[in-house]
Design brief:
The complex is a heterodimer. By secondary structure, chain A is an all-alpha fold. In chain A, 78% of the residues lie in helices and 0% in strands. Chain A has helices at 4-24, 28-53, 57-87. Chain B has a single domain (2-82, 127-167), classed as Up-down Bundle (Four Helix Bundle (Hemerythrin (Met), subunit A)). Chain B is extended and about 65 Å long. The chains are: A mainly alpha, B mainly alpha. Chains A and B meet through helix 1, helix 2 and helix 3 of A and helix 1, helix 2, helix 3, helix 4 and helix 5 of B.
């Protein structure tokens, strides 16, 4: 039987990979994908804890997280399209017009 | 112990695929590897007696969100990352923000590992009977969480309108 610890460690590893991606990559689409990895790591934690506690609440929270992730992806990608139209680039370094 | 074998198989697939998402230069391959990682996570959800979440993972994430990402990647047609600011040489040898990011990710991983070693391991055994029926989830969703459910529909409506307005081409008057 696989214990809860294993799922939590796996979730931590996945979240660390996602956080590393957000900070290391220089591509807006890859950064959004890394955010999705982090959201999924958190989902895994919710489901594992819900299973350990014997409630359906974990799965319901995952349902809401997925909805928010879908909305975030739609709006985020729309912003990426808008930025690409203005600057012809996906590098976040090139969107520094507001930086003094 | 077939459960342990499948767990490590799926967990290894998820970790390797997620690492490859970060490591690819072409966003198209990143999206593909992320779909692999989501599939492995869906398998883990099944092993956790949560078939509803597993199916939602496949349909919503792999089916809808990733298709949206692929659509944008193909629409923008700018697959390669700019080379001058790339971290391919070494993550710690880059400029300040990059070093900070790498250190932060490492610290986060170390902190998580430390927090997990502090918990007593006997609390981690799945002794309780699982709630896996979709009927129970649906009943709870429409009674206890009915308000959150309705707010979610407003959120999706706002996101839809926002995405359309943001991605719309400005028309000359």
């Amino acid at each position: 039987m696989v214990a809860l610890d294993h799922y939590l460690i796996l979730s931590g590893i996945l979240f660390a990979i996602g956080a590393a991606g957000v900070f290391l990559r220089r591509n807006l689409i890859t950064i959004l994908l890394s955010i999705e990895i982090m959201l999924n790591a958190v989902n895994l934690t919710f489901v594992a804890f819900g299973r350990a506690l014997g409630t359906a609440d974990g799965q319901i929270i995952v349902f809401f997280v997925m909805t928010v992730a879908a909305a975030e992806a739609a709006v985020g990608l729309a912003i990426v399209i808008g930025l690409f139209r203005h600057h012809e680039s996906l590098n976040p370094e090139s969107f520094a017009s507001l930086k003094w | 112990m077939p459960e342990v074998v499948t767990f490590y198989l799926l967990a290894g697939t998820a970790v390797v695929a997620s690492a490859l998402v970060i490591g690819q230069r072409n966003p198209m391959y990143s999206v593909m590897f992320l779909i692999v990682a989501f599939a492995a996570l869906a398998g883990l959800y099944i092993q956790l007696d949560a078939p509803f979440v597993a199916v939602a993972q496949i349909i919503i994430y792999a089916g809808a969100i990733m298709v949206l990402f692929l659509f944008v990647v193909m629409l923008l047609n700018a697959p390669q990352e700019d080379t001058e600011h790339d971290v391919r040489m070494h993550p710690f040898a880059g400029p300040g923000p990059m070093r900070f990011g790498a250190l932060l990710a490492l610290g986060l991983a170390a902190e998580l590992g430390w927090a997990l070693t502090r918990t007593p391991s006997e609390a981690g055994s799945f002794a309780v009977t699982p709630v896996s029926s979709v009927a129970a989830i649906g009943r709870s969703l429409f009674t206890e969480y009915a308000f959150a459910f309705e707010v979610t529909s407003i959120l999706i409506l706002v996101a839809m309108v926002g995405a359309v307005v943001l991605a719309r081409r400005e028309e000359p008057r």
